[in-house]
Amino acid sequence: MLRYLFKRLTSLALTLLVASVVLFVTIEIVPGDPASFMLGINAQADTLEALRAELGLDKSKPVRYWQWLTGMLQGDFGTSYTYKTPVANMIGERMWISLPLTLFALLISTAIAFPAGIYAASRRGRFGDAAVTGMTQLGVAIPNFWFAMLLVSFFAIKLGWFSSGGFVGWDQGLLAGLKSLLLPAIALALPQAAILTRVMRSSLLDVLSEDYMRTARAKGMSKRSAIWRHGLRNAMIPVLTILGLQFSFLLAGAIIIEKVFYLPGLGLLVFQSIAQRDLIVVESVVMLLVFAVVTVTFLVDLAYAWVDPRLRTRS
Amino acid sequence: MSKLANSSSKDAAETLLEINKLNVSVTTSSNSSRALPTENKPILNSIELSLNRGDVLGIIGESGSGKSMLALSIMGLLPEGFNTAGEINFDQQNLLKLSEEQLCKLRGSDISMVFQEPMTALNPVLSIGKQVAECIKLHRNVSNVDASKIAEETLAKVGLPVSQYPLSRYPHELSGGQRQRVVIAMAIALRPALLIADEPTTALDVTTQAGILDLLKQLVVDEQLALILISHDLAVVNGIADHIVIMRNGDIVERGSLKQLFKHSKHPYTCQLIEASKHVPDRVDAAVDAAPLLDVENLSCEYRMPRKHWWSKPRYFRALKSVSLSIKQGESVGLVGESGCGKSTLTRALLGLMPIAEGEIRLHGELLAKGETLSNAVRREMQVVFQDPYGSFNPRHKVKRLVAEPLHVLEHALSEQEQITAVNDALVSVGLQASDASKYIHEFSGGQRQRIAIARALIIKPALIVLDEAVSALDVSVRAQILDLLSALAASHRIAYLFISHDLSVVRRVTDRVLVMQQGEIVERGQTEAVFNNPSHPYTQQLLAATPQLPDEENQT
Amino acid sequence: MKLRTLIPGALLVLIFLLAAVVSFVWTPFDVTKLDIPNKLQSPSMGHWFGTDQLGRDIFSMIMVGARTSIAVAFIAVGIGMLIGVPLGLAAAANQGSLIDELIMRTNDLVFAFPALLIAIMITAVFGPGAVNAIIAIGIFNIPVFARLTRGAALSLWSREFILAAKVAGKRATRISFEHILPNILNLLIVQGTIQFSLGILAEAALSYVGLGAQPPIPSWGRMLAESQTLVSLAPHVALFPGFAILLTVLGLNLLGDALRDWFDPRLQRLRS
Predict the structure, then answer these.
(1) Residue numbers in B near C265 (CB within 8 A)
(2) How far is CA C235 from CA B409, C41, C209, C231, C252, in A?
(3) In this complex, which of C109, C121, C204 lies closest to A15 when CB atoms are compared?
(4) Distance, CA of B104 to CA of B98 (rounded, Å)
(5) How many angstroms separate the CA atoms of B434 and A154, rounded?
């Protein structure tokens, strides 16, 4: 078990390291000099030099990569070219919208998909199954940002139950905060819930035809308790994979949904920064998101080992 | 249930199970579209059976005979879409009339079942202790501790004492035979009156099989179980079953004791089955002074094991340890051993499918290159027929293309017309027709596919064909035909065979010499009859003792 | 089951393909011509789907938008297949080797960047545009196909008919193309339709946030972005492009499901 953990951790660190190199190199390709961009065309040569030194742009590329990397490890993401404030502060504020939104959506998606998938699998070929499967077809096809627009126009504008955009802030209390994230989370979650339902259903159906399900029935278990006792845990193995992938989809999807609801999260920050060529912010946000995705992949690996004893003994 | 417990001090002749006019059919929609009418395909026809307490019934049949469906009907576990009619009276209640809830109470408690595939019969994510205890908790109102205690006792009874096999073991930590013992433990934990074992040893090695059969025999005596033992193999039920029924296409064609059936069977199918089980093909013995064909000297092969860490040195598992053997032209050499002994590795090494760690292979006295790829000249001389008649062919190609595949190792490419002639000749020589060349493989039965596999090997007229468990997946009557075909081809084409099999009785009937392999080494070799009559190595003796035998073979050894 | 999904699926896909093709030669109105006096008109006989805030005909824009969506998604899936499938075949043919390891680790790396992040990085560097959207979606598709191909090919490599081909002296590359590829083609086609539909969704999302096709090329995603403030005023401006995306993706998914059933060997046996 420890060996498994250690192996996954090493591969996590390695992925992050390579990702950071790829990211750094990509951003380095960008033509133009951030310092001259910040000061405008008419900048004096000596002020330009001073700013370049201040930003650390006068050093060689490997040195700058090293500084960026070690800085990040200490929580220092550099200074925004446009706002001249530490990037870490900007991200820190925004993260508390994007991350809760993603997790909220993941929760909703799971809460819908698990019961729906189990229900459909246990009613295979009957009306209930067909109804759930039909719904998932629609759910998978719907673009989440369009769905978000429809939600806003109905629940916020027509019924006035929610505000049509913006975020009240966590200082207004947890419930108020969650309420302003509810519509965005639903918009994000439903298409993913549809995918997860399909995976849950088909994975459970695969498990149902396994020999050990027949053994359980031969022991005198009813179909239903055989599914609960023996089916679900085995069916979870592929579902976990998809759950991990969904996190990264949701995280990226949150960036788009934030635009629909004017939520001041990481998404809006990124688009602003792209428009203003504030690449150090883009670089940091992308690195952070990659970190989140890789961490979740790691957690999924741990969950595998928890579900499946075969992974615990093999290294 | 209490009724059953009380009656354990029963009258020996009391009837436990009585099946009257059992008919089972399956409803299939004849097309993928639902609008078309459905068909009712009969599976079992008017089955009549009765079984007394403590008796053992053997059910024998080839694939498609309906023997497994009969077992599932008794358990009430037929898949959806199956219709039943008639009576299955178990302990004076008609099982077919019981509700699902009532059946759940009977299953695992009064009637239990053991299935064929022990590798997949256990839930991989639950410990064996939990799985056995669960069975007890389902039917008895006992605490977890007591359930575990009963589980422990039961596992000890089936030969898995808790000192060596703690309850916390997971299925993947056990071998196939041990897993089957766990399945049996689950089945007998509550002392059922009836145990149904459906091919319980078919997936196991012969020595493991002997252990499981002994266990079942002992349980019948100790626990006063009635046992239904289902098998395709007459020899397996010999010595256990009091009565036997022979099934074919959903009918019981004959019944009686095994000895009776062997002495004077009335039904032609039974005679055919018995004849096929002990069929000895007509063979021409290899000439004693035949020229050497293949010489293998001190051959060793290794598999790379997964590394512990990505920086650690790769580890190797030595699957073949200094194996030497030789095959003369036209000779048939058997290689026997249990799974994991290195038989398949040897096949792969000979055919150039895996690299050789040490040793030499000579063909016609010429040393083969050590690398993984063999020259076309060598490939022309050696071909192979694999076990699985379903997996051996690319399902997307026609038979013509499948059989012609080895032709491209020929020195001079054949013309279109020559290819067609070659394919036709090959098909005809294995007893098929030239017109079969334009069909797809799924249009053929298992036995026919194995003929096509032989045709593919034959088409370049090799000197040696490696038969890797080539008849193991076939029903006995089909197997007898394929063995006849192989013997005829050996005589007409002067082909040598390396006949690899786990089935000692088959090897005995078709080979000149035999090699016995254990853990990557050849432990015994010699003339087939000499080895079988007078085995010198303890492992060979053990293998032979474990091999189930037909009634009239018992006198021979 | 099969026909129930095949016919509507194929029909929907065909309709949008047709719309895209026809838009090259004919649209009811010129999508580049502004007609401010007739802005935000509801659907009518003249303008079937109404007009937008600049008076352009929405039906015509959806036809041209279909062209953008389908082209971007199709090329992106093509890139993913053309690069991913050979990589997957190579990895499977050399299982456990350095090549295999390298391909799979690179795959993991790409999976750590969700498609949108790749698009963001590319736009940050090269600026927004349809070509960059194609590259972003394409890069994301490569590991999807590489992984699928490798997994399916690996299970075939241990099959006996592949061993038989090796015994017949055929080389790994030849076996890959002669025996492996035809046997996994059905999987690839099914996954292709799924990736195609995901590509359409991704293109729409990228256009919506301004990272996809740039004006004046109409695209469904940007139509939705521009309609956002008008939803309560003129719902049709937001509804039609949304339904266009929904129906195209639905059609592709239904088609994919039908193809999967069609290719499934277990069902095939029942059929024959």
Answers:
(1) 395
(2) 70, 11, 20, 5, 26
(3) C109
(4) 10
(5) 72
> What does the buried/exposed string (b/e) look like for B503-542 if buried means 16 or more CB atoms within 10 Å of the residue's CB?
bbbbbbbbbbbbbbbbebebbbbbebeebbeebeeebbee
Quote the domain boundaries for residue C118.
3-271
Token pair 């008109």 is at which residue? C41
Interface pTM (ipTM) of the complex?
0.84
Please check whether residue C115 touches A, CB under 8 A.
yes
Tell me which residue in C109, C224, C231 faces A153 most closely, judged by beta carbons: C231
Contacts of C271 in chain B (CB under 8 A): 31-32
* Closest Cα in chain B to C180: B394
Give φ, ψ of B57 to 5 degrees: -115, 130
**C167, B379: Cβ pair inside 8 Å?**
yes
pLDDT tens string A168-216:
777 877 888 888 889 999 999 999 999 999 999 989 998 988 889 999 9
Q: What is the CATH number of the domain that holds C26?
A: 1.10.3720.10
- On whether both B346 and B201 belong to a single domain, the answer is no
C50 vs C39: CA distance, rounded Å: 9
Please check whether residue B29 lies inside any domain of the structure: yes
Chain B residues closer than 8 Å to C2 by CB: 32
Provide the residue-wise pLDDT of chain C in tens; the chain has 272 residues: 466 788 888 999 999 999 888 888 888 877 777 777 777 777 777 777 777 777 788 888 888 889 989 999 999 999 999 999 999 999 999 887 888 888 888 888 888 887 777 887 787 778 788 888 898 889 989 999 999 999 889 888 888 888 888 888 888 899 999 899 988 888 898 889 889 998 999 889 888 888 888 887 888 988 888 888 877 777 888 888 999 999 999 999 898 888 887 776 554 444 33
What domain range includes position A220? 92-314
Measured over the CA atoms of residue B312, residue B314, residue B319 and residue B321, the dihedral's sign is: negative
C-alpha A214/C-alpha A205 separation (Å) is 13
Strand order in the sheet with B382-385: B382-385, B464-468, B496-501, B332-336, B513-518, B521-527
Question: Residue B378 carries which side chain, given as an amino acid letter?
Answer: V
Instruction: Please give the residue of chain A at the shortest CA–CA distance from B71.
Output: A218
CATH number at B405 reads 3.40.50.300
Answer yes or no: is A111 within a domain: yes
Distance separating alpha carbons of residues A104 and A82, to the nearest angstrom = 32
Chain C CA closest to residue A15: C109
Q: Measure the CA–CA gap between B361 and B349, rounded to whole angstroms.
A: 9
Residue B137 lies in a domain: yes
Residues in B closer than 8 angstroms to C3, CB to CB, are: 32-33
How many whole angstroms separate alpha carbon C85 and alpha carbon C148?
8
Distance CA B111, CA B191 (A): 9
Q: How many distinct structural domains can be found in chain C?
A: 1
Please count the structural domains in chain A: 2
CA distances to B53, B262, B280, B475 from B259, in Å:
22, 5, 21, 22
In tens, the pLDDT along A84-134 reads 788 888 888 888 888 999 999 999 999 999 999 999 998 888 888 989 988
pTM score? 0.83
Cβ separation B122–A214 shorter than 8 A = no
Q: Provide CB contacts within 8 A for B519, sequence distance 6+.
A: B321, B341, B342
**Residues A21 and A142 placed together within one structural domain of the fold:** no
User: Tokens for C43?
Assistant: 């659907």
Contact C114 A289 (CB under 8 A): yes
C interface test, pick of A15, A25, A149 with most C CB neighbours within 10 Å: A149
Tell me the two tokens of residue B199: 């091919």
Contact C228 A260 (CB under 8 A): yes
The residue with tokens 């459970």 is: A204
